[in-house]
Structures are given as C-alpha cells and as structure tokens.
Amino acid sequence: MATLSVQALPLPPSANPAFFSSFGREVKDVDLDVASDDQLEQIQKLLYEHSCLLFKNQKVSPESQYKLTKIFDPESDRYGHGNNKTGGEKKSILHPDLKTIPRQPQVQVIGNGTVYDHEGLPEARLKHPHHKTFHKTAVSPEDEEAGVTRFYRWHIDAALYDLSPPKVTTLYALQVPKGEQQTLRYDDGTGDELKVPLGTTAFVSGHNMFEVLSEEEKSLAVRLGVEYAPHPYVWMSSAHALPTGLGLESEGLELDLNDLPPWSQDKIKIFPALWKNPVTSNLHLQIHPSAIRALHIAPLPSTAKRTPESLFPDGATITSLPEVRSVVYRLQRQGIRPELVYTQDWEDGDMVLFHNRGVLHSVVGAFTEDQVRVFHQCNLAGTSDPEGPSEEDIKKWA
Ligand SMILES: [Fe+2]
Q: What are the TauD/TfdA-like domain coordinates in residue numbering (predicted)?
C-alpha cells in the first residue's frame, strides 16, 4: 500500500513552532471524493497523531463527506447535535448557524450571505456569527472598521447532553471570500493580539493546553470531572461570553433548569477534563467552557505529595458558577495565548479534518452581507464517551 505523503502546515508568524512539531499536516495526493479504504485508514491514524489535517483542491459531495466522517466511528449516524435539529430547540444558540442538506442530514451548510439552489436547498440564508451577538462587550464600530475582531466562541463540537461528543469534524470550504487580514484582540487586559486571515477558524491543541500548565494545575486537571448543563445551548441562550470567547460571564442569565425543555438526570454528561488520545495516549484538556455547570474534583491520592500550592488537595464539588468558571478559565486561558494558536487561511476547495476530542476551535471575524461564504460541515455523535486518564496517568500527574 502506498503511504500518503504529508507536510507540515504553514504556521502563522505568531505561532511558536516548538508547540507545533506534531500538530497539523497537509495530506497530499488524495482525492477525498474517491478515497480508498486503505487511504481512509491512514487518514484516521494521521488525524489522531496530528489533530488537524488539511487537504487542498478537493471536490467532495455531501455523501463522500459523510462517509469520510463516519470512518472514525462506523456505527454512528446522527449529526453531533442530533439530526434535523440544532441543540434540540429553537431557543438554542446554535439554531441560526446551521442549515441541513436534505438528502444527507448529517451535513450542514454554514457560512455567510444567501445561496440559492444549493444541494437541494432552494434558498439558504447563512450568517457568520459575530461576537457582538454573544460577547458581553464588543469592539467599537471604529475599531471594527479598522479590522479589529475577536474569537467568537472556543468550543468542542458536541451536544454535551444525552449524545456523546463526535470524534472528528470535517469542514469543507466551497466558497471563500477574500479580504484584508484582521487584528484579533483578546481584550482581557493582557494586551494579547493576533493577525488573522479574514474569517479564519482558530485551533488550539488540547494536548498543548495541558502541557503548558504548572505541576499543581496538571494535578488538578487529572483529578477533575466536568459536569455540563442539561440542554446547554438553550440553558446559556441569554448569557454573554467573555471577550476571549473562552467561557461565559457570570451575570445570572442562564435559564432556570425548570424552564428548559424536558430533561432527565441520566442524560446529564459528566466528563473527565482530560481525554486520552486513542493513538498517541496523550492527554488533551478538553472542556467546553460555555456549557459547564459544576466541577467534581477527586482528592489527591495518598501517594501524591501535598504542598501548600496543591489545588483542592481534599477534593471538592463546586456548583457556584463564578467559581466553576474561574477554575476552568485558569486551566484553559494559557492554552489560547497567541503562540499556541493555529489559524487556517481558507481557500476554495480546502477540506480540514480536526480531532474534535483533541482540539478546541473558534469561529473568527466578521463578513458583510454581500460576502458569500459557503462551507459544508459534518460531525457525528460518538457511539461512546471519551476515555479519561488511566490509573497510571493519575499516578503520574496527580
Ligand atoms: Fe464548531
């Protein structure tokens, strides 16, 4: 069998190559629309090793994209948020962002502007989400005019209630409007900023996010369980995000649990904060910061050394949202600093596969109504929940 050739992805100048030695590869000489079983098998392994794969100049039908997505979890067949619904309810914050392709409902059309007669959709009005609709504050109109933008929302593609997180997301760019680079500001008092291509998708490695933590933070992460809200995208529908897009402000705006669509305790998801990579065995810090509702921290094992710096050495259950969010923010914020961010400079025909259980990603930028952007996105709810740290990992890191 012929081994697929790969090369490193071009990094943005802001990225520190030391963090990207294994992250991201362009895979050459594959036609994804007719890829062989052998090629698909190699792609699977490459994805777990490199987190993010780019294929240039592709022409991929929704059927082929579905097939490509499905190889990672052959028994799965439902869209990551369930088929023909987006987070379950009209009130969900995901609702306006997604349009389903009728004959292949696991594949969504996303983008900006209006497209006509597209894959069985007579008319689809697409809206690239803008941070001003989600963040508590927004960049001023003058700054926006000058090309300033933000991360919209750092996330994992996952329902986080009832369904298990998809293993992979495939993102296919059919039409990409070109425009000036933008300046992405974090606006959190650090002065951090990034130069980004218009409408980029930003990625960070969950493995890097874990690696950059202090010893005490790693010990906390390996003992941490994260509980998500029922119907999280409805629950958070009135809340506002932080200027980094990395979680929510605590203003008491989340819906009361009694006002949510019907839910049951057995469908609530409590995941380990660290997810184990099935090929490399690396640990990836994978938390969807906007959807978290409680933390469950195990005590330090008796073999671990306790110091005054140990975090929650006796374990804890935290249900106060401001505290839940500040603990998670502390663990995640370092992992999105500019040198750790990969920004995809999209071109027509680009297909990106990303390891949804190994990276966090965010929409970036803003388009005008006449800038038409068309992408196909597919992910499938997992058939099982992610695996957490092993006994050995806990012994090593706690
Ligand atoms: Fe996403």
A: 18-378
Q: Is the same domain home to 203 and 273?
A: no
Averaged pLDDT in 10-residue chunks for the chain of 398 residues:
92 97 96 95 97 98 96 93 57 71 94 94 93 96 96 98 98 95 97 96 98 98 98 97 98 97 97 98 98 98 93 98 98 98 98 98 94 97 97 96
342-344/224-228 β-pairing = unpaired
Ion ligand 1 residues within 5 Å by Cβ: 157
Q: How many separate domains does the chain show?
A: 2
Output the CA 132–ligand 1 centroid distance in Å.
18
Q: Domain span at residue 32?
A: 18-207+338-379
Q: Do residue 98 and residue 177 come from a single domain?
A: yes
Cα 250 to ligand 1 centre (Å):
23
Q: Could you tell me the distance, in angstroms and rounded to a whole number, from the CA of residue 329 to the centre of ligand 1?
A: 19
Q: What is the pTM of this model?
A: 0.96
* Claim to verify: residue 359 and residue 287 sit in the same structural domain: no
Instruction: Please state, in angstroms and rounded to a whole number, the distance separating the CA atoms of residues 226 and 288.
Output: 9
d(CA 244, CA 139): 12
Q: Are residues 102 and 229 both part of a single domain? A: no
Q: Are residues 82 and 59 in the same domain?
A: yes
Please report the pLDDT score of residue 86 as a whole number.
45
**273 and 153 co-located in one domain:** no
**Cβ pair 275, 358 in contact under 8 A:** yes
Cα radius of gyration rounded to whole Å, the chain: 20
